[in-house]
Specification:
The protein is about 50% helix and about 20% strand. It is of the alpha+beta class. It folds into 3 domains: about 160 residues, Beta-Lactamase; about 70 residues; about 120 residues, 2-Layer Sandwich (Heat Shock Protein 90), CATH 3.30.565.10. The two termini are about 45 Å apart.
Length: about 375
């Protein structure tokens, strides 16, 4: 794609890309579709969409144009510094002939591809800044027409984000209402009837003069009582938020946002692998381990930045929580409640726990949970 193409053809490319973006029902697919559409509409060699956390830092980064081998060599994903952060802070688009020449540029890490021409556009979901769309390396440079087209694409992407969030809430509401109705029916139509039967059995046992009959009736009454307790637990489970299709990534994102929202520490989350089909018990273990490790780092490390990396393999889920804080001496300091809890949970799950730290060198907590 280049500016030599007729304007109508370029608008057609935008319409096709926007239609693909608007049709997505999964947030991850939406991010990828937006990046691809932005690259196709402008002719950019590289594209990315960074999702912002509560403090304006990047918590998710979907990119195209860089192969996996190069990405692994680069290492940590961007955290929203430099020009990338400038777009978030000012909430407006930036079109640059040379990103490295901008006063706010902080340079690129080792092994990063050379990038020069740059177009960055904010993506808003309603009245809130959701993230930024970044496009780089258009050979002849980006133009004002590119900026207008990508800004239109960003508006459509923001609306699609709101649509996905609304659909998710409506689905959850429908399921919750159905579960509440079932819970009420169990309580009103079944538990009360069983409770009345139990009282009658107890009363009959008291009136009987036969010890064997008394024992049998009391045994039946106790069994009814245990059934009632089981049904009450079922009601409690039904009234909890539905978990039939739990999304580990979404729950971790929510957990990290809640834990990090009250602190200035920047927390970044990255994912690697396929997370579909993970059992509820494994999700519970992973969430608790992330909660313990991240809470420890936020409370005790004094770190400026914490990175949480979650990877799904063939038979395990890997967790790494890395901070650049003060660290500590494992040989001197007694493990606190958080570390002990993580050790106990990984042992019960049949997983592993490893802690690498030293005074002044930060801490890396690495854990695995079997699938």
């Amino acid at each position: 794609m280049n500016d030599g193409a007729p304007r109508g053809e370029r608008l057609g490319d935008l319409v096709r890309g926007a239609a693909t973006v608007a049709s997505q029902t999964d947030l991850e697919d939406l991010l990828e579709a937006t990046v691809v559409a932005g690259m196709e509409v402008t002719g950019a060699s590289y594209g990315a969409l960074g999702v912002l956390g509560e403090h304006g830092n990047l918590i998710q980064f979907s990119y195209r144009g860089i192969d996996d081998e190069t990405a692994n060599k680069i290492g940590a994903l961007p955290q929203g510094h430099g020009v990338l952060g400038l777009i978030s802070r000012e909430g407006k688009s930036y079109l640059l002939d040379n990103i490295a020449a901008h006063p706010d540029a902080v340079g690129f890490p080792d092994h990063h591809p050379h990038m020069d021409t740059f177009l960055g556009v904010p993506v808003r979901a309603g009245d809130r800044l959701f993230g930024n769309l970044y496009l780089t390396n258009k050979p002849e440079g980006f133009t004002e027409l590119d900026q207008s087209l990508v800004e239109a694409l960003a508006e459509i992407a923001g609306s699609a984000v709101l649509s996905i969030r609304l659909q998710s809430r409506l689905r959850r509401l429908a399921v919750v209402e159905d579960r509440e109705r079932i819970a009420r029916d169990i309580h009103d139509a079944i538990i009360q009837e069983l409770f009345a039967m139990g009282l009658e059995l107890q009363a009959t046992a008291q009136r009987s003069d036969d010890a064997e009959i008394q024992a049998t009736l009391r045994d039946h009454a106790e069994r009814l009582d245990r059934t009632i307790q089981s049904l009450r637990q079922l009601i409690f489970d039904l009234r909890r938020p539905p978990t039939e299709q739990r999304d580990l990534r979404a729950e971790i994102d929510d957990l990290v946002t809640r834990l990090g929202s009250a602190r200035r520490t920047k927390v970044q989350v990255t994912y690697n692998g396929i997370f579909a089909g993970i059992t509820e018990s494994t999700i519970d273990d992973v969430l608790q381990l992330v909660r313990e490790a991240l809470s420890n780092a936020l409370r005790h490390s004094g770190a400026e930045t914490i990175s949480v990396a979650i990877s799904a393999g063939d038979d395990t889920v890997g967790i790494e929580v890395r901070d650049d804080g003060r660290g500590f001496d494992l040989a001197v300091e007694e493990p606190g409640l958080g570390l002990s809890s993580m050790g106990s949970r990984t042992d019960r799950a049949g997983g592993t726990l490893r802690i690498a730290t030293a005074p002044g060198e930060g801490t890396v907590v690495t854990m695995t949970v079997p699938l």
